[in-house]
């Protein structure tokens, strides 16, 4: 893929851009094989590929420059602002949104925040698009000072961009490079963006994780569903469940499913989806996954885990070793921490592994691994 910003040395976020796409996949697969070298793998499935551009459903833009000429993109450590509106990872529809946002920022008088001077109000704009083309837009502000101005100017933006369904102001008062604060103020009646992957209705709310590459995420969830349904599983947990994508794909009306996730916003999304699907044997709760597990003295037949980059860690691995669920399905965005966790589960054999290329042009990828208790 060609990126003019990369060539001009303005943005180097895609470290592997100079490798051909087939080479990127070969390198990821061999790195994964090296990481699992100590654990015999019964079956390697072929990697699932991504589109090479326009695959990101999310943009996190730092706002800099002046109120009349805002720059949306990133800020180098030396203070240089880089306009990322033309980043080829975004769908073409984002350009229309950015083109309307620039005059809107001036109309609403949202002065970009200046990091060194600690002045100004607008820190970031966060944009998410569903596969049906509807949008969620969040303005990350230093304070509530410009909120009334923002609200007064909003009808113009909504008339320009009728696909904007959810708009919020997030208040982030800390003068550090933190993306978002705790306080979220909804500026639209609609609070969640409707999404559908395969036949499963999902929703996206502020402050809840959602996969950034929807077509590859859909294949990941579908694969998890096929692997689980091929097993005689009547009860499962989905730990670190986010908005419930894995569990809701795997569940059948007969299966007992418990989904655990730390974000209450994400759990509200998962509960809404379960209701829409007519699933009654399902329970989603906002809790710490390890505390939830260790508070139980037995495990379901299958435990699915999809932790953040740090992995599931020693305590949860020890609990799994003791409670001995017949199967563990591990979806990871960091194969290194996953390999460390697998080493802590010596009673499990690696049945099947498949790489999902969620993050082309970088060294990152998602991997789905089925572990089976040794008899
Ligand atoms: C990689 S995301 C996976 C989300 C979800 N499975 C999906 O497919 O979108 C990891 C999730 O773990 C959640 N999380 C982080 N720490 C947690 C904890 N201690 N207990 C439960 N969930 C946690 C995050 O909020 C995030 O939603
Ligand atoms: S993130 Fe976008 S602008 Fe930056 S190098 Fe990658 S493709 Fe280019």
From TrEMBL:
Q: Which GO terms describe its biological process?
A: rRNA base methylation
Please verify whether the record's keywords include Methyltransferase: yes
* Positions annotated to bind [4Fe-4S] cluster: 3, 11, 14, 87
Q: For this protein, what is the EC number? A: 2.1.1.189
Molecular function via GO: 4 iron, 4 sulfur cluster binding; iron ion binding; rRNA (uridine-C5-)-methyltransferase activity
* Chain residues that bind S-adenosyl-L-methionine: 211, 240, 261, 306
Q: What is this protein called?
A: 23S rRNA (uracil(747)-C(5))-methyltransferase RlmC
């Amino acid at each position: 893929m060609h990126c003019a910003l990369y060539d001009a040395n303005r943005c180097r976020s895609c470290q592997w851009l100079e490798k051909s796409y087939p080479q990127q996949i070969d390198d990821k697969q061999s790195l994964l094989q090296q990481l699992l070298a100590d654990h015999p793998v019964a079956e390697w499935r072929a990697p699932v590929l991504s589109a090479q551009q326009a695959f990101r459903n999310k943009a996190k833009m730092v706002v800099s420059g002046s109120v009349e000429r805002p720059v949306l993109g990133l800020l180098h450590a030396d203070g240089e602002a880089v306009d990322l509106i033309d980043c080829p990872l975004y769908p073409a529809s984002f350009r229309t949104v950015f083109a309307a946002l620039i005059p809107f920022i001036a109309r609403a008088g949202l002065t970009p925040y200046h990091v060194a001077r600690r002045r100004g109000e607008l820190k970031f704009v966060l944009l998410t698009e569903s596969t049906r083309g509807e949008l969620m837009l969040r303005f990350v502000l230093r304070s509530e000072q410009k909120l009334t101005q923002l609200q007064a100017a909003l009808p113009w933006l909504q008339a320009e961009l009728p696909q904007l369904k959810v708009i919020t102001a997030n208040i982030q008062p800390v003068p550090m490079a933190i993306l978002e604060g705790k306080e979220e103020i909804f500026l639209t009646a609609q609070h969640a963006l409707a999404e559908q992957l395969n036949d499963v209705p999902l929703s996206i709310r502020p402050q809840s994780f959602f996969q950034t590459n929807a077509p590859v995420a859909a294949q990941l969830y579908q694969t998890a569903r096929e692997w689980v349904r091929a097993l005689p599983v009547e009860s499962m947990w989905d730990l670190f469940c986010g908005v419930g994508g894995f569990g809701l794909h795997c569940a059948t009306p007969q299966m007992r499913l418990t989904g655990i996730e730390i974000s209450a916003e994400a759990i509200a999304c998962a509960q809404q989806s379960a209701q829409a699907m007519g699933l009654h044997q399902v329970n989603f709760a906002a809790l710490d996954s390890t505390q939830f597990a260790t508070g139980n003295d037995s495990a379901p037949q299958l435990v699915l885990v999809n932790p953040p980059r740090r992995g599931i860690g020693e305590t949860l691995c020890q609990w799994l070793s003791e409670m001995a669920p017949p199967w563990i399905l591990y979806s990871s965005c960091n194969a290194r921490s996953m390999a460390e966790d697998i080493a802590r589960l010596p009673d499990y054999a690696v049945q099947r592994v498949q790489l999902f290329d969620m993050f082309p042009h970088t060294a990152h990828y998602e991997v789905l691994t089925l572990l089976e208790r040794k008899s």
